[in-house]
Amino acid sequence: MASPTHDDDRRVRLLASAAVTLGHLSEVLTPLGERFALAGHELYLVGGSVRDAVLGRLGTDLDFTTDAPPEEVQQILSGWVDAQWDTGIAFGTVSAVKDDQQIEITTFRSDEYDRIGRNPQVSYGESLEEDLVRRDFRVNAMAVRIGADGSQEFVDPMNGMDDLLGGVLDTPGLPEDSFHDDPLRMLRAARFVAQLGFTVSPRVHQAIVDMADEIRRITAERVRAELDKLILGPHPIDGIDLMCETGLAQIVLPEVPEMKLEIDEHHQHKDVYRHSLTVLQQAMDLEDGDPDLVLRWAALLHDIGKPDTKRNEAGGGVSFHHHEVVGAKMVRKRMRALKYSKQMVDDVAQLVFLHLRFHGYGKGQWTDSAVRRYVHDAGPLLSRLHKLVRADCTTRNKRRAAALQATYDDLERRIDAIAAAEDLARVRPDLDGNAIMELLGLPPGPQVGEAWKFLKELRLDRGPLSRKDAEQELLAWWASQKD
C-alpha cells in the first residue's frame, strides 16, 4: 500500500479544520438543514464559503444552493430568520439574516449567456453538479451537504480541493467558455490571486491574454468593485502583476502598466512601475489595523505622472518635473471613469499632489508658515500623507534612507509642537465673518469672503494673532484694496 503523501495529510487536516469551523455554526446550520429536509429538499453550503472554511478564513457570509425553487425557499425561511428580502429573486437568490450571519440561498442554476453582456438567461438546474460546473473556478465549486441532523458531507466533483492544495486557480470547464460567458471572471482571477496568494493555471493565464479585450463588456462599477477587493487583499502586487502581464490592466487601469518606462544605457532611472509596487507594499506595512483603501490607491498611483513628464537631461540624467501635478490630474480622470465617489477621487488625488512637497523641507529649512501650510493642505489626510511619504523612500542606500526618515521624524515633531500650541487641525482666521462685516462696514457678499481669505492666509503665515493685531492687519489690507 502506498504511503500517504504530504498533500493527502494536508487535505485531511484542512477538511478536519473546516468541519470544526462549520461546527461552530451549528446553531444556524443544523436548524436550516432540518427545515429544508422536512420540506423534502437538499441544502448545500457552497462556493467561497466552503473555500474559506477550508482555508480557515470564513467570515459571516454564508452561501447555499438548493433544489428548492426561490418561492419555496422563502416559505422555508419564514418565521426562522430575523429578516429576509428578495432583491435577487430574479436570479434565483433569496437573502436573509440570522443572528450575525448573512445568508444567501440560490436555487440550482444552469444558466445560458448571450455573450454580449454578463447577465445570464436564468434557468434552474436539476442537480448540484450542474450548478457547480457553471462556477468561475474549481476552488469555488466545492460544496458541503447540510443534513437534517446537522451532519456535513464534503462534495467535490470538480476536484477543487486539488487546486486549493496546489494554490492554483483553474476553471471547471474550458476557461475560454467561462470568460466568454462572464468576462468579469478574468478580473476576479486577479482579485483571488491578491486575496488568496494563489497563481493561475497556464491555460487560464493564456485565455486572459487572448480575451482581455472582452473586459470592455463589463460596467465601470463592477470593474471598480473588483479592483478595490484586489487592492485590499494581502497580496495586491501579485494581482496587479497578473493584470499587467495579461493585458487586463492596459484596458481598465492603463496608467499602471505605462509606468514601465524603457531604460537606456545613456539615461538611467529607476523602474517606476516596480518602485510604485514597492511603495504600495511599504505603505501596507505602515497601516494601522484594517487595510486602507485610500492610502493603497495613492501609493500605487503616486507616480503615474512620470511617463508624461519624463525628460532626458544633459549628462545622462532624467527628470520628471511637476509629475505630482500631472499625476493628480490623471488620478482624477481615471478614478472618475471608474465611477468613484467625489470624496474618494479628491482624497487620492490630493495625496498624489502632496507626496513630493516634503522634499522641499531639506534639513529643516521650512519656516513655521510652511509647516502650517503642509498640515492645512493635507487636512484630514495628514496621517495618510505621513505614511505615503515614508513609504516612498525605496532607495537601497541605507545611509540615505535613514537620513530621509530622520528628516521626516523632525518634520513630524515640528508639526506636533506647532499643533499643540495652535490647534492646527482647525486653522481659521482670527476674525469671523460677522467681525469682518462690522469692522469694514460691509454687507454679506464676495468682499467679505476675500477678507476672510486674507485673514486665513495671514493666520497660516504668522500663526495666531491677537484681536487687535488681526483688526489692524485687516484694516491695512482693506485700505490697500481701495487704492
UniProtKB/TrEMBL annotation:
An annotated Gene Ontology molecular function: tRNA binding
Question: Sorted alphabetically, which InterPro entries does this protein's record hold?
Answer: Bact_CCA-adding_enz_type3_sf (IPR050264), HD/PDEase_dom (IPR003607), HD_domain (IPR006674), HDIG_dom (IPR006675), NT_sf (IPR043519), PolA_pol_head_dom (IPR002646), PolyA_RNA-bd (IPR032828), tRNA_adenylyltransferase (IPR014065)
Q: What does the record give as cofactor? A: Mg(2+)
Alphabetized NCBIfam families for the sequence: HDIG (TIGR00277), tRNA_CCA_actino (TIGR02692)
Q: What is this protein called?
A: CCA tRNA nucleotidyltransferase
SUPFAM superfamilies (UniProt xref): Nucleotidyltransferase (SSF81301), Poly A polymerase C-terminal region-like (SSF81891)
Task: Give the Enzyme Commission number.
Answer: 2.7.7.72
Q: Quick one: a GO biological-process term for this protein?
A: tRNA processing
Q: Tell me the ranges covered by the HD/PDEase domain, including all copies.
A: 268-434
Q: Which domain of life is it from?
A: Bacteria
Q: Which UniProt keywords apply?
A: Magnesium, Metal-binding, Nucleotide-binding, Nucleotidyltransferase, Transferase, tRNA processing
